[in-house]
Amino acid sequence: MNQKVILSVLGTLLRFLGMMMIVPLLVAFYYHESPLPFLIGIGLTEITGIYLWSSYKSDDDWKLREAFAIVAFSWLAAMFFGAIPFIVEGISPLNAFFETMSGFTTTGSSILDNIESHSKSILFWRSMIIWVGGMGIIVLFVAILPKLAIAGRQLVRAEAPGPTEDKIKPRIRDTAKILWMVYVVLSALEVAALHLAGMSTYDAVTHMFASMGTGGFSPYGRGIEAFNSPLIEAILILFMFIAGANFALLYRTLYVNHKIIFKDEEFKFYTAVVVVATAVLILALRRDIGADPFTCLRYALFQVVSLLTTTGFANTDFNLWPDSSRIVLLLVMFIGGCAGSTAGGPKAIRILLLLKYARWELFRSVHPKAVKPIKFNGKTVPENTMQEIISFVVIYFLVFIASTFCISIMGVDILTSITASITTLGNIGPGFNLVGPMASFNGMPALAKVIMIANMWIGRLEVFTVIVMFTPEFWKK
Amino acid sequence: MNQKVILSVLGTLLRFLGMMMIVPLLVAFYYHESPLPFLIGIGLTEITGIYLWSSYKSDDDWKLREAFAIVAFSWLAAMFFGAIPFIVEGISPLNAFFETMSGFTTTGSSILDNIESHSKSILFWRSMIIWVGGMGIIVLFVAILPKLAIAGRQLVRAEAPGPTEDKIKPRIRDTAKILWMVYVVLSALEVAALHLAGMSTYDAVTHMFASMGTGGFSPYGRGIEAFNSPLIEAILILFMFIAGANFALLYRTLYVNHKIIFKDEEFKFYTAVVVVATAVLILALRRDIGADPFTCLRYALFQVVSLLTTTGFANTDFNLWPDSSRIVLLLVMFIGGCAGSTAGGPKAIRILLLLKYARWELFRSVHPKAVKPIKFNGKTVPENTMQEIISFVVIYFLVFIASTFCISIMGVDILTSITASITTLGNIGPGFNLVGPMASFNGMPALAKVIMIANMWIGRLEVFTVIVMFTPEFWKK
Ligand SMILES: [K+]
Ligand SMILES: [K+]
């Protein structure tokens, strides 16, 4: 393991993170709030970043293990240093780490009991972390993960000029820049739209951070319900839906071929899930809560898009719905957005390919000798891609089960444990019962908080990245 | 599709089933109860059986599709005709079908509200169905399924002289006879042991039926709790554990090599699950219900063995335990007994191989070019066996999720829906909440009962056997 290159990259990352904190510092000055949390944050982060960067300056290429370690430790380092402003503000370190990891992983599960009691600049930083985390995710997905040969090399389908097999660095700049551009342009459009719909600049920016990053933090305890505006909700639905789509696909649709998005099987599947789940949920809500059709549509579409894209916003307390409506939301939590987006979850493409695999095996059990490959977007899915997807899903579920078991055995009810596990592992945000959308994760046992931090970290980094580091062979020479 | 051979086999099966009903008829005479349910049952079953057998007499070999159809329709036919005595006794047809399918699939989920109100002969037949179903399972597993190339050809490892690839019939007699012998000898031993421990002959026989078939019906509403005898529970634990082990392995251990059982990886895994789950549950129960250590051991070991082997007996109402104890039971429900036993569930060997697969993929993500096959009992697991296991688990979970969704959306709470689905799909018996061990499935919506009947059928026949019949290619020429 080349530790020098790892520490060098972490140094660069911290320098970038420290500079990011200048934004909430300016917000603090604007609202005449204490700049101390950010001054201390910037100081400690920059000092550490510059120290690492100058001591271990390295232009070495990343090999497989270095790439795993860089990805995993990047999010850990971001958690430790990003939490400094919260800790200075008086939040306990464990809760601060939870909230920061929740942000950088674009989870949006909140541990703050009384959100409105915090300063505007702290809440701004809390939301901004999501947006920064979303940028990191784009790099991770588009540039790094495909090279790690995990979870399906071809999943993102970015089709940027690729580097040679063992060198990862050159590609990062090529592809990530294009996708960051898409991300930034969409972000600007969303701020404008939300502002025009009546939100203050502060609210528009923070909610844009949370929806473009599919993060779901809101500076208000009641979340989107606080605005009670169907127009704002419609804008958020649109941008959540876009943020959950493959950014490379969006780019190619805008600049190469407008029709390409309608031919993409993952996008079609993703859209179909939204339509079907919303339709079912409307019917269930009509029966279960007896609201008028427009309200049912409003709740159903917003919550389905919010949970499928793993944003986690709520325009009503869906935790109060009967189980017969909540089951629809529970199921979409196990799907997630598209690969190459900021969304979490197992991702639509993996679920789609797994369904194709099951269908294929049924065919094969009747025609054992037939040769008929599994296809995606007209191309044969390579066998090892399928293997990677299957092992991803297997390990994802093992982590989910282990987490549910551990949280439950601490005395938390099963449904809370199930949803707390999937919502953190899938980087969604809210769950049911004790961790509902209007509740806080602060009531959970301390050890459960640690497990959920691990879930967010594992889930965001596509499970393998973190889990391999716990195998002995990763550390062997 | 050769319909003649299918109808011919079903005819033979019904003739056998009709003769089986002579046993509860004798029980009815012994207890001076109405013989009518069984006389009508025998009459209708034998007439249909003889009609089919004589009209379609066929010695043709079974090809792939015929084998699928024979297996699936055998259990359906057994359900329809086995239910006649219950219907004659006044139970509604849907409930009678549920109870009979529950028996023949060795599930043991009961829909009878007041069990003790039924006649001794009816309750005898109810328990006996399980034992007959267990015999059918042995044939299915040892002789038929391995030839269908589903779910892992080598899973059972019966190693009986095999026939040629396309001919299934000859093997049935060879291997099944040996394993039936094991089954019958163990059954006799269990009756003797239970009788010596103080059970009446009637109770000993019916509970032997239920434990050797891993079925779990009891003629008493409170189940094993009714006896309140640690000795009886210890005997049941032993025989449930044996009934959940691979019968071919038991045979070879007894007659070939006494040490072989301790070298078998599936048996070791199965035993390890019992030990670990029991230990964890003892600790959880100590904290949750505060009982003395012996009571905790008694409850924990009995319930872990009962639910892991998918028997479903209860020596206490575990549904009253807090979730932090129930979670242990919920997890073992997703494992099941060993292949080649009468137990249901995904089976220990599949879970073990899936864990090995996950571990193997983690290794591969660090060493992408390494060649290191997955091994089981020292032999390399062929790639297509692994594929079959994976697709089994994928389809098993899809059915589980679909069933949970459908039952839940009807207005049943999520935990009841989850456990009602896994307990019927895994042929376990009891679940949590509305379908707890001391409750009845009668309170479930009618459509949910149909879904659960389908679950039992699908789960017992290793999912593929039933599911392929719903694909268009199965019916194509
Ligand atoms: K989220
Ligand atoms: K059972």
UniProtKB/TrEMBL annotation, chains A, B:
Membrane disposition: Multi-pass membrane protein
GO MF, one example: potassium:chloride symporter activity
Keywords assigned by UniProt, alphabetized: Cell inner membrane, Cell membrane, Ion transport, Membrane, Potassium, Potassium transport, Transmembrane, Transmembrane helix, Transport
Top-rank taxon: Archaea
Cellular location(s): Cell inner membrane
GO cellular component: plasma membrane
Annotated TM spans: 12-32, 38-56, 68-88, 123-145, 178-198, 234-255, 267-285, 327-349, 389-412, 446-470
UniProt similarity note: Belongs to the TrkH potassium transport family.
Name of the molecule in the record: Trk-type K+ transport system, membrane component
Organism: Methanomethylovorans hollandica (strain DSM 15978 / NBRC 107637 / DMS1)
